[in-house]
Design brief:
elongated, mainly alpha, 7 helices, 180 residues
Amino acid sequence: MAKMAMLYPIIAYLGLTLGSPSLVAGGLIVILLLRFKFGQSLVIDKSYTKFFMLSIILVLGYSLITDTSDGIRFYPVVTSLLFLGIFATSLYSKQSIIERIARIREPNLPASAVSYTRKVTILWCVFFIINGSIAFYTALYSDMATWTLYNGLISYCIMAVIGGVEWLVRKKFKYKETVK
């Protein structure tokens, strides 16, 4: 789903420039259904994935039915809200989503690392709130080129910076833990 999400704004921009919103929405729905059928996630529960896909299909379905770009433009808003929901609810479960991801590589996390992963999960929640707000603004008030620039490039650059900084902090954190 991540690769599709990264290409989504570009596909939407090109599709809307060259074709109708209904055609673009229909094509994106087919791609999402294929991804759902043949893809898998190691950290996100299948029931979350079903809800995620249904939500996206409903948003894209709006564009399919109305032949407007509205549903297509709100896709990044909905995905930010859905990821916010997944990350935030994981804070109330036994393991946060970031802890689940961390345990794939390192199953025996120390208590200090578990605490750290909760903080990183909170950081991502803040990102999803801000990103969703900006995506909402671009969906309502920006032209398609600006919408594509933010949702197809800038937001991913911000995610890369957050991921990179977090990686550096984690390396420093692990170094301090091993020196103790």
